[in-house]
Amino acid sequence: MRTELLAPAKNKETAFSAIDAGADAVYIGASSFGARHSASNSLEDIVDVVNYAHKFWVKVFITVNTILTDDELPKAVELVKNLDKIGVDAVLVQDMGLLLELKKLLNKSEITIPIHMSTQCDNRDIEKIKFFENIGVSRVVLPRETSLDKIKDIRKTCPNIELEGFIHGALCVSYSGQCYLSQYIGGRSANRGDCAQPCRKKYTVKTDNGKILAKDIHSLCLKDFNASKHIKEMISRGIFSFKIEGRLKEEDYVKNVVAYYRKELDKFSDKISSGKSIYNFEPDPARSFNRGFTDFFLEQRKDCWNFISPKSRGKYIGTVISNNKNKLIIKTDYKISPQDGLCFETKSSLEGFLVNKTEVDGKKATIFTNRSINLEAGTKIYRNNDIEFGKKLTKKIKRQIGVNVEVNNNKLTLTDENNISVSYNLDFENAKNISKMKETFIKQFSKTGDSDFYINSFEIISDIPFIPVSKINELRRNLFEELMTKRIKNYKRDIQKPLNLNKYYKNEVDYRANIHNKKAKEFYENLGCSVLEMSLENSKPNRQIELMRTKHCIKFALNICKSPENLILEDEYGKEYPLKFDCTNCEMVLLSPKV
User: FRET label pair with 381: which of 30, 227, 486, 532, CA 20 to 30 Å apart?
Assistant: First the structure.
């Protein structure tokens, strides 16, 4: 069984680090039209990423997954054509107008780049995924909320389309593509790549008659996703690509998380790319940014919320034994260093402090803090800034491709792990001391240094001729270069088959279909689907609407699941957002204020 580890990258440098850490594919934004405006990249940088990735047979996907205006659509089409020319392996798409235009190019063989339907398409319904399979797109990205049982059902119903599922990272509280809160509040559209993340703000939960149930909590804030314990089950149910969220994350975060999931995936499947990564650290996602972890709804409803803070809590390291102003004694199994950032949770916030000095006595650490704190015995302590770990992450990870070396009948042959071979005829005089020559050859040829290759094995079948050390070094360099050139030439990009549009699975759609341009409207109408209204970004409907639909339920979180009371979220400015509860589907809906 082969699987794909898909890593995020906000820029070229992060993409290189993700590849070095063991990613089979990276996804990155172009200069525009990606769902993270602050993570855009020039075409020149994307060329560099493609060239570096393809050395290891790693794929590069580009996010073109915002909804587009009529003026933007031709520019997006031109961008995809350029991405196709430079060898990008796929584009992620949300806008159906763009899909319609790409269909025309694909069916005229003007482009061959594979099309992946972004999670922003709101791929909750099996019928929608079946529709995408039937029209012929290569892959669909499943929502973060998809359960193991539903993945199994999707695979059974849709056997001929690749399934990409999230494995780690931040969680949007709303179904992707269905959150309009940021747009409604301040005109910053999540579907246009400009979300202001109002879900991470504080709200007061109250009843519609004014009774306060929870005051000033981060009621829509979720923990971060970590499905590492479910990799085997996800594979068996049909996930091919395991996606790490985080196109805004820093390079050290990406290194650590990719390295961790590389090791975890390798326990259950073979990777699709080449080479092995050599780490100078032990990967641990808890030591990078996280708000606490949840496996969300993979198996059953869980404690997925973090009402205390959207800030990083980091890794749990111990509990308080005693505390006296700037002197804190904790029970811990971990080394704590000066300038580490430690934190603890109160009932309403996450509080932090820096370590000035530590004294260790077995599993007891005395910490001298940079400010006076007052903590009770038993309080849990977390580390959200790990100085020593951070230093290790600044060092470059080496990724190299295994090569078998054979000498036989005066021919030197190098064969890499993908069975790509190059050869050289050794036209030299016989060696006087064959065993010494063999020893020298192996020693010198093994000096791969920072090259893209390492020597996996030597097989010297016949006597080796005399070769000067300088010539051995020259042969190694030249043959490695020739082998890499041949590897890149033999790299095969997947080809998108022509698209064949057919009847849509719904008869009508409203603003939640995110139809933002005329071509998108034409797409649906041509498929026999009535468009009742354009996107919310075009105009606000003159009625109360859904601003968010989520599997997270505040009633469940507050342990009042059976309560018949109507609930409201009130923001810091006093604006009220009614909540509606769909208990049959275990969903909560955030509504716009009453008109």
Answer: 227
